[in-house]
Design brief:
alpha+beta; 4 helices; 23% strand
């Protein structure tokens, strides 16, 4: 076999291998064809976050990689116009290659801090509680997968709000304060949407 012909065959084989590698990389979204991470805008947020640019910025920092993010239609029960109606709840999700975040607020009453912490931890299946300063009570979990805020809402009837965020993946270790602030933003929005009449951090009654 002539040298030029052999070189031509080698070059063709290399070309085929490079093309195959490029095709696989593109199809599987791996370097050097990895698509950039998607960006969440304030206008895209579910109602439970309001239109907070701060919340959008935090989500962009703490959510894992996805080429795009979306917010399915929010679920829940708005509070009725009757001041005695306290049947309030909301549920928001962030999707991006699976469910990445769940945000939920629901009306409750009469729980102690310990009872409330246990109720939320039973829901989020996460680690021990680490308190922080927000609402009446607040905590993150040691796994950095959840944050929750308990807020006073109404004095008559006696009603409070429980807001929690559950992440699929832990928040980055250097963004724990972001996770806490995100839960606080959601709790503040819920306090407004539920038309609460007492400050969110009113001391425990009794």
């Amino acid at each position: 076999m002539k040298l030029t012909k052999r070189r031509g065959i080698v070059a063709l084989v290399v070309l085929v291998l490079v093309a195959a590698w490029a095709g696989i990389s593109y199809a599987t979204n791996t370097p050097p064809f990895k698509k950039p991470k998607g960006t969440i805008e304030a206008s895209e947020l579910c109602p439970s976050f309001g239109t907070s640019q701060e919340a959008a910025d935090i989500l962009n920092r703490i959510l894992p990689y996805a080429t795009s993010y979306r917010f399915p239609l929010e679920e829940g029960t708005p509070r009725g116009l009757d001041h005695q109606d306290v049947d309030y709840s909301t549920r928001c999700y962030v999707q991006g290659g699976g469910r990445l975040l769940t945000l939920r607020t629901y009306a409750t009453n009469g729980e102690s801090e310990k009872e409330w912490q246990q109720t939320v931890r039973d829901i989020v299946f996460s680690g021990p509680a680490e308190p922080f300063d927000a609402g009446r009570w607040a905590f993150t979990t040691s796994t950095r997968k959840a944050a929750a805020v308990y807020s006073a809402c109404l004095s008559d009837p006696d009603t409070d709000l429980s807001t929690y965020i559950k992440l699929r993946d832990p928040a980055p270790a250097d963004h724990l304060d972001d996770l806490r602030r995100l839960a606080e933003i959601a709790a503040e929005q819920a306090h407004e949407d539920a038309r609460c009449t007492v400050p969110a951090d009113t001391p425990a009654r009794g």
